[in-house]
Amino acid sequence: MLPITASDTGIQMGLVAERAVPAYGDTPITLDHDMPLLPGAGRQFTFAALADHIDDIAARLWAAGVRPAQRVAIHKTSGFDINVLSCAAARIGAVPVQLSPGLDGASVLALLDRLEQPYLVTDLAKLDGPLSDPQLANITKAVLVVAGSRPGTVALAGLAGAPRVEAVVQELDEPALITHTSGTTGLPKLLVHTPRTLHGRYRPQAKLFDLVRRQETVALHVSYVHSRMPLALAVLLPRGVPFLVMDDATPDHVAAFFAEHRPAFVESAPNSFMEWEELADDPRKPFANVKYFSSTFDAIHPSTMHRLLHASERHHPVFYQIYGQSETGPLVGRAFTRETALGADGRCQGYAFPGDTKFRLVARGGKEPSREHPGYIEVQAAGRVLTYYGEGERYAGQVQEGGWWRGMDVGYRTEEGCLHLLDREVDVVPTIHSTLEVEDTVLDRLDELTELVVLRGPQDEPLPVVCTRKDLPLDPVRWREAVADFPPMAEPVRLTLDELPRTATMKVQRIELTRRLHERLTQEWSS
């Protein structure tokens, strides 16, 4: 097997924008939303302006008392200013902690408590809502608000014009960023990144972006609090690539935004691409200029790739599927074309990145890993995080002999060396070979579905949850025909997309959804 080589350099989040300015200072960044932190910035500004905003906010954080190595938790309403704040904190040597805007208040308070008296940067909406608990003051060093003011907090707006301070270059193996896992199995774990591990994640992503012509625009709709976003900046800014950052993923907005800006490279999560499928026939042709699609965070359905590739009018557009884990970053990837997408096996995630990642399959229950008996997927990756903050023993428990990381996904390797992901171990349904495989197949058969999730029912039966286009009723005859060749399943439960609990990266929280449905079905049976 190819060795994994640790990076000998690091990503300095607070300096990426500044270092890009001499060559690409006039390159534009376009947002589809305003930033409350910087009300005068507008929705379009240059790389040079971004660097200045980061320097400005870093000075304000310093004036508020933040110092190197201190933790700065950022939990505010969704927006790109989350990343401005993170870069600003890193610029003065502090450790930004990116907490999803979608986390419930109890989870945020628990994570803040684990962080041991961090600074908290938030907004009034959060303080009036999920963070209204009076214990907040006891578990934070200080609370800073991005706009407006509130007694007992520090108003960052009031620190505008604070003297600029010298940037801090962080050591390669010191904490530089903290993100968190998706929380699909409970309270999220806090992931500690270093400049070296961030660069390890950067390497495979940089190779992908090298395909983009400098003059063409990249569109990003990814979680602001995932490590993917600061790494996207680390890839795009030094290359002088103009880019769009989208907060609103509703199809009509995306169609109008793309029709105006005509991106050539679009990166988003699988669930967003699924929602955008209906735009393939939109007269505005929002995907006409897209040469590259990139799906991160999770597997994507072949039918989704097929529709979007055929919505492009470019010669030989490509859809990149990249599979990774929060703890490791990107692990394997594969490219699909118009000719190969629809016939692809949706469970095939791709191949390791030479020199950056490798994987192996380990037996479960003493059986050789195969399609019929999937094994644990264990990986080595240059981007693997340093530890779980406050849960070092838990992290160590997933590190196997030889430095292999076990992430609890199960699958198998084909003869060609391709990794096939079948399920997370906690999501396995006894009578189903692969819930994800069933979902791929049925979604391909039923165009009226926008989402399908197969869960374990109260009596271990497969329990399908369906979402339909325009929330129309599901034809029971078509459903029965579509699932006739699978093991018997319970009657489908129909929900709207908005009713599905999701993670920061738009994955369906299967365990939480299962809990809710079990509770609902139990009540129905007892009434």
From TrEMBL:
Q: Which residues form the AMP-dependent synthetase/ligase domain?
A: 25-389
Query: Per its UniProt record, what Pfam families does this chain match?
Result: AMP-binding
Matching SUPFAM superfamilies: Acetyl-CoA synthetase-like
Note the InterPro entries from the entry.
AMP-binding_CS, AMP-dep_synth/lig_dom, ANL_N_sf, ATP-dep_AMP-bd_enzyme
Please report the name of this protein according to its UniProt entry: Acyl-CoA synthetase
| Phylogenetic lineage | Bacteria, Bacillati, Actinomycetota, Actinomycetes, Kitasatosporales
